[in-house]
Amino acid sequence: MMKFPTTAASLTLTQCINLIVQKYTSSGDVISVTSEKNGYDFPSVRMDYSENSLIEFLLDYCDATPKFYIFDEMNIEQTLEQLVFYRNYFNPRSRYLFIGTNFSTDQVEIVAFRNIYNAIFIDEISSEILTYFPFKEKKLRKIDNSLQVVGKCRSDNASLENFFPQKMIVDFKKSEIFIVFNNAFIYTECNTCSHNKSGIEIEIFQLLTKHLHIKTNFIPVEKVLKKQFTGTFDIEIGALLMYPHSTCEQSVGYLTENMGFFVPATQRYSKWRLILSVFSIESWCAFILSLVILALIWAFIYLTLQKTNGEGLFLSTKNFIIVFFEGRNKRCRICFWSQECLYFSVIFLSFAMYSFFNTRLTFLLYGIVFGKGIESPKDIAANELLIGSPTPTLESFLRRIPGLETYPEKFYYPCSDLEPCLNFLRHEKNLALFYPVRLIRNLPTEFHISEEGIILMRQLKETYLTLHTVAYFQKGHPLFHLFNKHLRYLIESGIVAKIVEEYNSPLLEESELELTQKLNYQHMLAPLCLLIVGSCSSLIIFLLEVKTRIV
């Protein structure tokens, strides 16, 4: 413990701070201050957030966060925001000392919002030492931000005791927390599972909070992004989390996921080969049958026109255009409205098929064939491919994989949103996309996966391609250690493993990667219905016209 000189007389403000720091720090602790000329007797680091000062701080204290923060500026909100910005050096569990005058409850609320509970406030005029007790009602959402006098700067060392009293309550029963989750099939949503299971991670935390007698509200991350949920959340679970994880605290790893990646080759499937391969047998049968029906209707109309002295003008190459544009021809003795109806049905069918191919098949024309010879992360580095990862956490995880430790940062491609990365893959073909295996198996079906891709996925199931799934708490959250303790118990007792086994999903088994789902008749239902309805209506109108002999 550091030793500072004391006097028997009444202490000045600086001497009082020296004694407080002496009481609550040890030798080697990093102490952060905001004042340039403070006259303190202890070594400290001034965090003025300028570039030179920050670089000096990083060089000297890169492996340690301050144990004691001293703020002698009244703008507490701005100072804390600057501190949180350098999130690796912000530790809300450290001790904080604020120096000023006339502290308000709003300032205390700002401190409590950052989960800073070990804080004292010294009034420069009265020399009173104040603090607050946030959990008087034992409710997480009901913070008491009123200040209480706990001492005064004097020479009596006994008065310096208990300035940082134990403020964390052990019993949070009947408290209410908000857990934000990102939908990930079978982990945070599982509507297709038996017994309407809610997802592995949600089930784990439902069990955990029920044991702690805490009310839990699960909030989809979409509501946060759309600002439909404006409150503060406590925990974040699920894959591909949205916030930078350096602002949070990670729980123990309660799930383990196999990581995999896929790399497309430069080649593409030919247009017609891909179209022929993606249609199922039933869709081909339905399409051919509809064409046969259309051909029979045309043949029937053609033969009927011949019998009614229409001279077969309906299918005449020479007069077809004249009839189509002028509606009637001098050589045509009979002109039926059913002809125009049939023309328009064919035109609308063409537009429908064009729309269908644009919405359903355009992306299928760029089938991905997985690259051969890319069988490990070392091969990715050797070929200087771009690397795509969905979150900063996964990116930092990839940098620890053998073969990628020294891979230049310029080769990392941001993939926070999966769709742009898949579009990039479709055209550029030089991106290795890393994802948990369960998500790769559930990729959108518009990307045709070849047999080479299945083989490649088998080769990449190695031990170092493993990612621990964790829950993220806001830094300094009072429930962090309590949840960690009970979560570790659920893991060690085998309860988590039992929950995972109960799902029995093929996504958790060693199943092969499925090929693209073939298109069936339901995908073609709209254009086929238009074709059949247009043809049948033409035939009905034609029969009525022939029967009534409309000339």
Keywords:
single chain, 551 residues, alpha/beta, Rossmann fold, 7-stranded mixed beta sheet, 5-stranded mixed beta sheet, elongated, disordered N terminus, receptor
Notes on the structure:
With 551 residues, this protein is of the alpha/beta class. Among the domains are: 13-160, Rossmann fold (3-Layer(aba) Sandwich), CATH 3.40.50; 278-364 and 523-548. The protein is built from 18 helices and 19 strands. The chain has helices spanning 13-24, 51-61, 76-85, 105-113, 200-211, 221-225, 271-278, 281-307, 317-326, 337-361, 377-382, 392-398, 418-428, 437-440, 451-459, 480-492, 495-503, 525-548; strands at residues 31-33, 45-46, 68-71, 95-100, 119-123, 128-132, 147-152, 176-181, 215-220, 235-237, 248-250, 255-262, 264-268, 368-370, 386-389, 412-414, 431-436, 466-469, 472-474. The strands form 4 sheets. Strands 2-1-3-4-5-6-7 form a 7-stranded mixed β-sheet. Helix 8 runs parallel beside helix 18 and helix 10 packs antiparallel against helix 18. The longest helix has 27 residues, at 281-307. It is elongated. The termini are far apart. 28% of the residues are buried. This is Ionotropic receptor. The chain crosses the membrane at residues 286-305, 334-357, 524-544.
